[in-house]
Write a structure and sequence with these properties.
This protein has 110 residues and is of the alpha+beta class. It has 2 domains: 2-76, Alpha-Beta Plaits; 78-110, no CATH class. It has 3 helices and 5 strands, in the order βαβαβαββ. The radius of gyration is 15 Å and the shape is globular.
């Protein structure tokens, strides 16, 4: 795993995570629980949520997507087929990385 982004808040971390996942890069938010347990922790170094990619070989592509996101540059359109949720069977559009109905995470193929 490799850290590719430090967010200002939880919502930003999850937006970046979803952006990466919708582009085929498996990512996870790490450290967000610290914000819930330490009062005022958003200003303490080392407590901001981070986004990590599982495959370090995808880090460069992830950082380019993040650069585009943070600068307002155009992002690539999510493409590909719709996918069925493995938990509830709901059919979702390709840009989504988790199920809107039950919250299950989209499975990624290698």
């Amino acid at each position: 795993m490799l850290k590719v982004f430090t967010a200002e808040h939880q919502a930003q971390a999850h937006l970046v995570e979803d952006l990466l996942r919708s582009n085929g890069i498996e990512a996870h938010v790490v450290g967000e629980s610290l914000l819930n347990t330490i009062p005022g922790s958003s200003v303490i170094p080392g407590t901001a949520p981070e986004v990590w990619v599982l495959d370090s070989g995808q880090a460069e592509a992830a950082m380019e997507l993040i650069r585009r996101f943070t600068t307002g540059a155009p992002l690539p359109d999510a493409s590909g087929p719709s996918w069925p949720c493995p938990a509830c069977g709901e059919v979702l559009e390709p840009q989504f990385s988790s199920c809107w109905k039950c919250g299950a995470t989209r499975p990624f193929s290698s």
